[in-house]
Design brief:
Layout: E1 2-7, H1 14-23, E2 27-32, H2 36-44, E3 50-54, H3 62-70, E4 74-79, H4 85-94, E5 98-101, H5 108-116, E6 150-154, H6 162-175, E7 180-184, H7 192-195, H8 204-214, E8 226-227, E9 232-235, H9 251-259, E10 264-268, H10 289-297, E11 300-306, H11 309-326, E12 330-338, H12 346-354, E13 361-366, H13 369-378, H14 389-401, E14 415-417, E15 420-422
Parallel strand pairs: 1-2, 1-3, 3-4, 4-5, 6-10, 6-11, 7-9, 7-10, 11-12, 12-13
Antiparallel strand pairs: 8-9, 14-15
């Protein structure tokens, strides 16, 4: 006996669908769900085999389909009548393999039975059938052989400077000729829009969440970006922290996967990474899901910690937590706001950090408040603000992350790495021309 859940969202096909399903001796309709949230909560109980859903039901997106599949509930989509190629493509991108036209609900029992006995299982939203190398219209290609990399900027609580570092690294990569997207995925205290002087009320992250909900994010990823110059763009964060619920599980992961096809991606994340203690009944994911998805998708993680005693203690705990939560990933530690008044040398701090765990490299960022203030007040990047000690230190970080991006002006700057000294590049940089019109 196949147990079925139905979500029609008031569509005209609902009544005939319930009738033909009820007439089939091998099928039992367990519940007519009010909406997708009701469907996901009911699927969690583990009593259903198949969910018949209207493709245009509000809230039906990739994470919702993933939730059904996670609980062994196979989705069957009913699509509107008419040319259905686009609807079938969207269903495939959401992870739904079985599709029935609204005028063909007489064949719904056969489709339900086929889906229930499909041992191969439908693809999830993350393996939906589409061309992974397709480039959205208007998006520049990544140079052949140079796929984009994802760099997640993370660190412990206490405002150690994650957002400043993320914007600085993104701008320096763009200055070297790379096409870069800066993503503000901080669901606790988004700040990149204000920091960069982007005052539009439209949130790029919320726009991405809406496109993910319709299965169109991978095709329209360019539309959620705000260009800062010819090579640097930003996906702005949440306008208010309480809107984190709109960023469902899988949104950040899909955004990063789509964006890296067109260039490097630098992600500004929140500090907390602990899971939601509440039960997962709706598939919405917790508030920290965006951060864990960014860390999981990253090729490398830049962990930012403050140089003072409190900051270093937090950094130690954060490195342990990162290893336990994300697992093995390339980690570069950036000790921020290093200053003589602390009374510690770089070698002494390096010895402390070496005890925190295995890291790829260690970098020191000076307490260059004047450079940060200039950029913040003007709504510009550190690169646009001209040469500074902090910019030179961030350039050394980029040298380590992208060694092939070194310019002809490279020079020694004395970078401290764990167990060795490396080269850091220092060069004079003129201020960029004025901010583009907004």
């Amino acid at each position: 006996m196949i147990v079925v859940l139905v979500v029609a969202a008031g569509a005209a096909w609902e009544s005939p669908a319930l009738r033909v399903l009820g007439d089939d001796p091998g099928i039992v309709v367990l519940k007519r769900c009010v909406d997708v949230d009701d469907l996901l909560a009911t699927a969690t109980v583990g009593q259903a085999d198949v969910a018949v859903v209207g493709l245009d039901a509000p809230g039906l997106d990739g994470p919702a389909v993933d939730h059904l599949l996670h609980h062994d509930v196979r989705p069957v989509a009913v699509v509107p009548d008419g040319p259905d190629e686009a609807a079938r493509l969207r269903a495939g991108r959401l992870g739904i393999r079985t599709v029935v036209g609204a005028s063909d609900v007489a064949g719904l029992p056969e489709a339900v039975l086929g889906a229930a006995h499909d041992d191969d299982g439908p693809p999830t939203a993350r393996t939906a059938p589409h061309d992974p190398d397709a480039v959205p219209p208007g998006a520049p290609d990544v140079p052949p052989g140079r796929p984009g990399r994802v760099l997640a900027v993370w660190g412990p609580p206490g405002a150690p400077g994650r957002s400043t570092v993320a914007a600085g690294v993104a701008a320096e990569l763009a200055r070297r000729g790379r096409r870069v997207l800066l993503v503000d995925a901080d669901t606790h205290a988004a700040s990149q829009a204000q920091q960069l002087g982007v005052l539009d009320e439209v949130s790029g992250l919320l726009a991405a969440a809406r496109l993910a909900g319709t299965g169109h994010l991978e095709d329209e990823v360019v539309s959620v970006q705000r260009a800062l110059d010819a090579r640097l763009a930003v996906v702005t964060g949440l306008p208010r922290p309480d809107r984190w619920r709109e960023v469902r599980a899988g949104v950040v992961e899909t955004l990063l996967r789509a964006a890296r096809r067109h260039g490097d991606v630098v992600v500004d994340t929140a500090a907390p990474i602990e899971g939601d203690p509440g039960p997962d009944l709706s598939g919405r994911g917790g508030r920290n899901q965006a951060t864990t998805e960014a860390l999981g998708a990253a090729d490398e993680v830049l962990v930012v910690g403050a140089a003072d005693p409190v900051g270093l203690a937090r950094l130690a705990r954060a490195l342990v937590e990162l290893r336990e939560t994300v697992g093995p990933v390339g980690v570069r530690v950036l000790v921020n706001r290093m200053r003589p008044g602390l009374g510690w040398s770089e070698n002494e701090v390096a010895a402390m950090v070496a005890d925190f765990g295995r890291i790829t490299s260690l970098h020191f960022l000076p307490h260059d408040l004047a450079a940060v203030d200039r950029a913040l007040v003007a709504g510009r990047t550190l690169v646009e603000g001209g040469d500074s000690a902090l910019l030179r230190a961030l350039a050394a970080v980029v040298d380590a992350v992208e060694p092939g991006s070194l310019t002809q002006h490279g020079a020694q700057h004395g970078a401290q790495h764990v167990g060795q000294h490396g080269d850091r590049r220092a060069s004079r940089r003129g201020a960029r021309r004025g901010r583009r019109s907004r």
